[in-house]
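Async update (no meeting this week)

Hi team, since we skipped the sync, here's where things stand on the single-chain job. The sequence we agreed to prioritize is pasted below, unchanged from the tracker. I ran it this morning and attached the output directly underneath so nobody has to dig for it. Comments welcome in thread, and please keep replies under the output.
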Amino acid sequence: MTNNSKAALPDNQPAPVELEFQSDKGASVSTWIAAALVLALVGWMGSGFVIPSESSEETPIRKDPDPASVATRTSTAETVTQYYQAEGQALPDRDTKIRSTISGDVVEVSAKKGDDVLAGQVIALLDGTNNTSDLKRAAEELERAQREYHNAEELLKRGVSTMDRVSQARATLANAQAQMTAAEEAQKDLSITAPFAGRIENLDINEGEFVSAGSEIARIVDITPLSVSIQIPQQSVTRISVGQTAKVRFITGQERDGKVVFIGSSASSDTRTFLAEIEVPNDDGSLSAGISAEVTIPTGSVTAHFVSPSIISLDADGSLGVKTVGSENIVEFHPIDIVKAQVDGIWVTGLPETANIITIGQGFVRADEIVVPSAGDKDK
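Output:
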């Protein structure tokens, strides 16, 4: 490099030397070596994508999972009796209010509330003074009418009377006979009696009291037998018929065998149920009317399997069913109907007569799936 402008220098300062630069031939060699190394490295990294390594591992093939293991139990169908159950109420066989048919004063009360009476037994007596007079007057009038009728017939035979007189006498006699009959019936009505055997529940008269014709004086009920009334829904009414036996359990803990004696022919418009009555013997009178009762009526038999509610499953449509293991260990789903429930299990229909029911693992398998069933115990 040459500096054209020269400055004045001190006398004792030597003159500057001009610098000259020359290119180094060895420096370009290093550059070429570095470039070659970079190209080699890039080529080696790219070769892994273009040329696969001979030592690379093969892609693993996915295998199907092993069949699920389930526990099964061999079940054989049994004959089970079906029942219809309903809640009801015990009612007396007969319940009647006793009324006085005539007016009069009570002169005697011969029974009290709670007494058991026989049919025709006198409960109370009314004063018969007026009736005695009426009865005597009717008897005299009847006797007179009979004489007049007899005389009219005799005179007609002699030809001194007419047929009209005989007819008039006959009408008078008939009227007198009617009055006599009414007086005799009134005399009978002085005695107020029980219309049937039963127990007096209410007695609303006392001696010396005046009662009017038609007034209620007592109430009598007959609880031998009892009648238990229940309501049967319309979908079950065809299962019940008159004459069927029934088991009746009362709220008191007592049990009786009964019989269906009545089924209504018209459903209630409000509940769409039919009234039915079950007659229950109660000769000793130990059962009271009005208490609650549970009625169980056998309605037939069906072949069913006994299963635990815990093994019941649902299919895609929401139907109840039980899963079993069929031929070739394939899971099968069987829709079921519950026919009877017990504390320890339920009876169901819809399964084959003999079935290998899945008891453990049914929630993890589906229909048509192959499983590995474990050995199960047969039903006893």
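Quick observations from my side:
Residues 1-7 have pLDDT under 50 and may be disordered.
The chain is about 20% helix and 40% strand.
Reply here if anything looks off.
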